[in-house]
Write a sequence for this structure.
């Protein structure tokens, strides 16, 4: 079961990967890049594909989204400051 969201010649997919040592199946996020290979006349001769596991990146993004929701829904004022104490951002009044 694969579901892809096409983005030109690159796409983000969820793949099932089987761990042969433990005999389990794991759902992972991958970034696919597909490149058309053509001859001198422009005729398609093949497709080169690379796959990059982005599961860790997608997990971090989900944690970031949850934290953003907590901050946005907070009744308290929350500010983000740099090391000099300058306010970079804050949550809006509800």
């Amino acid at each position: 079961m694969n579901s892809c969201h096409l983005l030109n010649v690159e796409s983000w997919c969820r793949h099932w990967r089987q761990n042969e040592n433990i005999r389990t199946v794991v759902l992972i996020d991958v970034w696919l890049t597909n490149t058309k290979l053509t001859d001198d006349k422009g005729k398609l001769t093949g497709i080169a594909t690379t796959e990059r596991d982005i599961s860790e990146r997608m997990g971090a993004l989900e944690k970031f989204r949850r934290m953003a929701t907590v901050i946005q829904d907070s009744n308290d004022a929350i500010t983000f400051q740099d090391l000099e104490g300058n306010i970079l951002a804050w949550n809006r009044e509800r």
Summary: DSSP finds one helix and six strands in the chain. Residues 1-8 have pLDDT under 50 and may be disordered. Residues 3-84 form one domain. The longest strand covers residues 24-38.
